[in-house]
Amino acid sequence: MGSKLKNIGLISLGVIAGIGASIQFDAIAQKSAAAPLPLEELRQLADVFGLIKSDYVEPADDKKLLTEAISGMVASLDPHSAYLDKKAYKELRESTQGKFVGLGIEVGMEDGYIKVVSPIEDSPAYRAGIKAGDLITRLDATPVKGLTLDQAVKRMRGEPNTKITLTISRKDEDKPLIISITRQEIKVQSVKAKVVEPGYAWLRVTQFQEPTVDDMAKKIAAIYAQEPNLKGLVLDLRNDPGGVLPGAIGVSAAFLPKDSVVVTTNGQLPSSKASFYAKREYYANPGSDPLAKLPEALKKVPMVVLVNTGSASASEIVAGALQDYKRATIMGTQTFGKGSVQSVIALPPDRTTAVKLTTARYYTPNGRSIQAKGIVPDVMVDEYADGDGLNGLRLREADLTKHLSNDTDKGPEVTSPKVDELEEAQRIAAAEKKRKPLEYGSKDDFQLAQALNQLKGLPVKISKVKPESRSDAEKDDKDDKTPLDDDKAGGGAIIKKEQKK
Predict the structure, then answer these.
(1) What is the pLDDT, as a whole number, of residue 148?
(2) 409 assigned to active site
(3) Domain 7-29+44-187: what homologous superfamily?
């Protein structure tokens, strides 16, 4: 685990970098340059362009050179900023609607190979047995070594019902695995729910999409139709990589007092300094409110929120808000720590390409920065009764090259295990190999069982592993601090009012 993932993205989405970016699909007003342009460096760029055109061994295409220059410039900023070509931009817009064509795996680049961060539930890759931590070494007959992440992603994309063969290197497997996967249009079911036992329900959000709030409202209504006197609810955000910001606000608003601050952001632009509230206009289309008919009792039903290292971005916003208001007990393991806002800015002249640019940081209602830190659970609980499994070995935001720092916490950033812990990682991986895949919400779901015990006032088996640290601000907030008011909150995601979904 000594090598860090150099980049991260979703095969099914194309060249999207980052986990669960909160997005918009219109251009925003460009900030006027406060300082003069660096003319000397721009001349140097023009000189290099001219040298390539005149001296390179083969003729170079002007458009390709300039596009690659833009792509490299944006990618150099942080792990989540990226240039989106026409196809990637189109796929990004489709993905927020909950459907896209692909394999359904979240991936990154490590040592020149594609590393699987996580398969998306119910996707072709998930059903084919692809696991987190797998290294993809070949795509059909093409070696991955030497390809960029973008190039590898493009080879894995294709038309529905076409096949691709992946060569997989998996820890503790003596031979490479050859796995054939059929590309499909993936319709991600973002919300799942059921009554797990009389009086207690499980509500899972797998990813925050445009339909998430509507889907959640329908699932909750169905739960109350079956259990009108609900005693406790488990909100499951484990391995939820994030998604659109309105979805996170709507899910939070279902459980928080009306008009509560859900999240704030802060960046260079004046419009990035704003607060987002548990109000209809922040999560629903004009004239509709999917939460309006939900039972009033939902605001007070005892709750546990399950999180883990795979919980990122929008799911961290929800967990952080419910934690700050003491509305729910947060249980599980420390989250990923993606606390930055990505704005998708369409580019002229035809607005068919875009730049996904990090424009602000996220803060919980109490002003805690999520970036490179994540949410520390109130109750630490391992994934299994005998330990944390591979969850503790997964990368975090702080592992990513050029990640933004946490500007409110002076404590150490949480990182994945280093080289000297490789032996322990191999031991855990060998043990994990013998386990059957964990199905969230099943009778074998240890963390869910502990969440139910918490709701019932029964003993909970707490993890022996302690969180990396809890900042001084968090310690102060834990007992007596209430969420900040609007005039103190500071920050806000760059999503125009008319664009709120």
Answers:
(1) 78
(2) no
(3) PDZ domain (2.30.42.10)
